[in-house]
Amino acid sequence: MSISFLVAITGGIPIFSAIFQIVSDTDIAERHHSHHDTYRASKTFTRMLVYAMGCMGGAGILVCLLQRLGLLDVDIHVAITFFCSFVVTTWAVWAMFGRYRVETHSDYLRVVPLLGRARVIPYDRICDIRTLGEPLWEGNPSVCVYERGRRTPALLWNLLDVEQILMRINRPDLLERG
User: Fold this and answer.
1) 149, 125 in Cβ contact below 8 A?
2) pLDDT tens per residue, range 132-155
3) Which tens digits make up the pLDDT trace of 75-115?
4) C-alpha distance from residue 145 to each of 89, 119, 131 (Å)
5) For the chain, which residues make up each domain, given as ranges?
6) Half-sphere exposure of 6 (CA within 13 A, CB side)
7) Residue 25 CA to chain centroid, in angstroms?
8) pTM
9) DSSP strand E in the chain: where?
């Protein structure tokens, strides 16, 4: 790939992401409707990912500029590839967490995972709720919700208000065991 293409990717993705973040930014991670509640990743978290993309993209472009001016002696291919791969990886994480959400309805749970199709789990088909190790950051651990007849659980990341979601599921028989 050419240097100019990698520089365009390194600078373009953060700009696109920042514009998208500003346009879609409601600053509400938890929304209560009359018939369901929606839980999303915090806008502070997704905004922080956009800031990281912008800083690293800007640093990558600056390194390329300094190398072109002869003020920095680096292999430009290695440098811009590093910054571009960081930006693309961070963008993928940002896009996945921007998509992720959990909706709690009166009798079922709808999980839109980081990757894959949305999953609807009726509360009466939940057979087990287990915590997933230790929390990645402060708060409650992530939770796996197992549905009768399915092998793979639905994952509720602790990035969301897991306690509120579990209370909405209203299955005290499973909560005491899990």
Assistant:
1) yes
2) 776 656 667 788 899 999 989 998
3) 999 999 999 999 999 999 999 998 899 999 888 999 999 99
4) 28, 11, 9
5) 3-99, 107-177
6) 18
7) 15
8) 0.81
9) 30-32, 36-40, 101-105, 108-112, 119-122, 126-132, 142-147, 154-156
